[in-house]
Specification:
Largest sheet: 4 strands, parallel
Strand order of the largest sheet: 2-1-3-4
Structural class: alpha/beta
Number of strands: 12
Shape: flat
Order of helices and strands: HHHHHHEEHEHEHEEHHEEHHEEEHEHHH
Radius of gyration: 31 Å
Length: about 475
């Protein structure tokens, strides 16, 4: 346990048992909700008053005032039940903006129904209504994001989290509220009400309590947390080692979720349609280059135009990747057991040019059409590929996680410059980290962005 943690523990342990070391954040949250609700009300009212001025000529015209009196109460009611004033919006202002837009859309739709049902055309100006609604939506989005960030910066997090450490080393971060169970003498296996009373005083007003303990004390602490009116979680070393991402159920029994698959049916369908259209279009547009390269390869050295190599694809299945042959036929390394070096004698002159400009990868567009690859994804590697004289999966335990999606012609690692020969271990770990980030944050928009960025990294000094 580091000195910072021990010092903090000593401070907490020396406090009187009646003291309350944790501030009550509920009042701070209530203030935040009040500020957001006040902004919402001012925004909606101002929007329709401004619409009154623009189209009626006076701010207190009946049209806008009537709309405010009907729409604002409906909005506040909907916003209060759809989570527009909840802990999630304090953590992320964008969530608040999205939920407030849903609330104003519902309120506006309700108002239209009321106006149609009661035929209140005389006091209902469509121009005022739509202009005021558009103003309100725009200002709600801007205000929620700006004010939300100001609240975070000025007031800090409005939630208190306490970490109780029980018998293991814990590296406390600056600002952490950390308690040592041993310091104030609490044993989770106890039935002593006085010990429970002491624990309750120590974590009074906490919104969330985390327990850092050894595996054999997880069950007792779980029993303790269930008896407290607090969000309780356990930082279990064993669970952390297996990379648990959630809890599921099967036949009434709980399961530990360790993998959810980055792309589900809808995402895979959209990505596959995009791959077919993009690869087919690219093959047609690049056909003059493909033909010219094929002729140049055949003229310079005997052998096939295409080079086929077994590589690892989605779900760790093997497939044959296609590339333009860039080496002399009798010196090709089908297993990729020997790294290609700068000025490698195995590489032909045409091969040197097409490798340096990434043209040798273009036949992989056929792999995309066949369904073995995608336009964007982690690059496929050969079975014998090494870094620092070690196989890739021997360097980084996360390596095989990148195979949860189809490999790509290009990827996030490539546009960040992590390409070429893997000489040292970091050459691989940088790629793996980028690939896993791609899996975690996948979106079709990001695929398109990566493809566009690829244009600027086609030629690379590490490609030889």
């Amino acid at each position: 346990m580091n000195l910072h943690s021990r010092h903090h523990f000593d401070q907490i342990g020396n406090q009187h048992s009646d003291s309350v070391p944790i501030g009550n954040m509920e009042r701070r949250r209530i203030r935040c909700y009040a500020i957001l609700a006040g902004w919402d009300a001012i925004t909606i009212a101002s929007s329709f008053l401004l619409a009154n001025i623009l189209f009626i000529g006076t701010w207190h015209a009946t049209h806008g005032m009537t709309m405010i009196s009907v729409l604002l109460p409906i909005y506040i009611w909907v916003a209060s039940i759809n989570g527009s004033y909840s802990s999630a919006v304090l953590h992320d202002p964008r969530i608040g903006a999205f939920r407030s837009i849903r609330a104003i859309a519902f309120a506006a739709a309700t108002m239209l129904i009321i106006a149609y049902s009661f035929k209140v055309g005389a006091i209902f100006s469509r121009l005022v209504f739509w202009t005021g609604t558009i103003f309100a939506i725009s200002l709600l989005i801007a205000g929620r994001i700006v004010i939300g960030r100001i609240l975070l910066n000025r007031l800090g997090t409005p939630f208190s989290t306490v970490v109780i450490v029980d018998g293991i080393a814990w590296d406390a971060k600056p600002g952490d509220i950390v308690l040592d169970a041993g310091q104030f003498g609490f044993d989770p296996r106890t039935d002593d009400p006085l010990q429970y009373n002491e624990l309750a005083k120590r974590v009074a007003h906490a919104d969330r309590v985390l327990i850092a303990c050894s595996d054999d004390r997880v069950a007792p602490w779980a029993h303790v947390l269930k008896s407290m009116a607090v969000d309780g979680e356990i930082l279990a070393p064993e669970v952390d080692r297996i990379g648990m991402i959630g809890v599921g159920r099967y036949n009434g029994a709980r399961t530990i979720v360790v993998s959810a698959g980055p792309l589900h049916l809808r995402d895979r369908t959209v990505k596959r349609i995009f791959d077919i259209v993009a690869s087919a279009t690219a093959l047609v547009l690049l056909s003059p280059i493909l033909i010219a390269v094929a002729i140049a390869i055949r003229i310079e050295s005997p052998g096939p135009i295409l080079f086929r190599q077994q590589r690892i694809g989605r779900d760790n299945t093997l497939f044959m990747v296609l590339k333009f042959r860039s080496m002399y036929q009798d010196r090709c390394d089908a297993s990729a057991s020997v790294l290609t070096t700068r000025s490698d004698s195995r590489v032909t002159r045409v091969g040197s040019f097409i490798r340096r400009n990434s043209i040798d990868e273009l036949p992989q567009l056929i792999n995309v059409l066949q369904g073995d690859m995608s336009m964007v994804g982690p690059r496929p590697h050969a079975l014998s590929a090494k870094a620092a004289e070690l196989l890739y999966w021997d360097i980084d335990d996360r390596y095989r996680h990148r195979h949860a999606v189809k490999p790509g012609v290009t990827g996030l690692a490539q546009i960040r410059g992590f390409r070429g020969a893997t000489v040292v271990a970091t050459d691989l770990t940088n790629r793996v980290s980028a690939d896993l980030e791609y899996l975690r944050d996948w979106s079709m928009r990001k695929d398109i962005w990566i493809l566009l960025r690829t244009i600027f990294v086609i030629r690379h000094d590490n490609a030889f």
